[in-house]
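WARN retry 2 of 3 for item q-0093 after timeout on previous attempt; input resubmitted unchanged.
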Amino acid sequence: MTKRIQFETKAKKIAKELMDYAMNEGKEFGITDAVISVSQSSDQDNSIEDGNVTEVVSGTSLRISVRLYAGDKTLSFSKNTLDVDKIKSGILQNMKIIHIVPENADKRLLAKEDVYKGEVEDLDVYDENDVSQEDMIAYGKEMEKSAFAVDGVKTARSASVSKNISHGVLIASNGIDKASHATMHNASISAIAEDDNGMEIDYDYSSARHFSDMKTASEIGKQAGINAVSKLDSVLPDTGEMPIILSQDAARTFFGSVFSAIDGTAVYREATFLKDKMGEQVMSEE
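OK item q-0093 returned
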């Protein structure tokens, strides 16, 4: 039995027990609906410097979240435990006070007849082949080795390889019953180049759901070194209008600041340079 099946089997058993408790015991408190979610997240981050492992950080967090409904009134809470008795105690405490909560029809649970009952597309975001710590460390050492191999690179730092594995189960009284599983792998390194005029630093990275889809360690290390060396002997250009080419990272930063200005929260808080600009041209037509 795979790890995700093991989690799903255990988590659904817990979630259904809590759902039965909430709906049965909640009748006297006016409970009409409930949502139970069980989640687990595991992280591991390995840092390498001068060919040695300098830091390993890992851990697993577990969380059960409960949302209770009494008509248009809703309360929610979560606990970092799988102790069913403690969660039941929390459910009871919240049921006893839900009557004082203001009504909000916009938070009402979706009606049973509106819940999607078709097949859910598999987005292939979970890697069944769990990469070992040994392979992650070897990957990090290869990144560093490849960065050092670039002519002009003096040293490297912040070589890091990490992974995150998350599992989740959610059931609701309106018929929702789903499970989600995902993995994420990240690797990055910064290279420092030096010549007679000074030092420059740059980096490269890779992120992927499946470890096998990551760029090779040698590609990342080499590119970080090339990026750093390319900055050496840079000069300040004359002021003027000229075409520019933005790197992927620079483009993301540049356009990210523009799109963040139209973020709903920023607009609501009036924390945007586009405040009071409705109907006005704010950028060049070209």
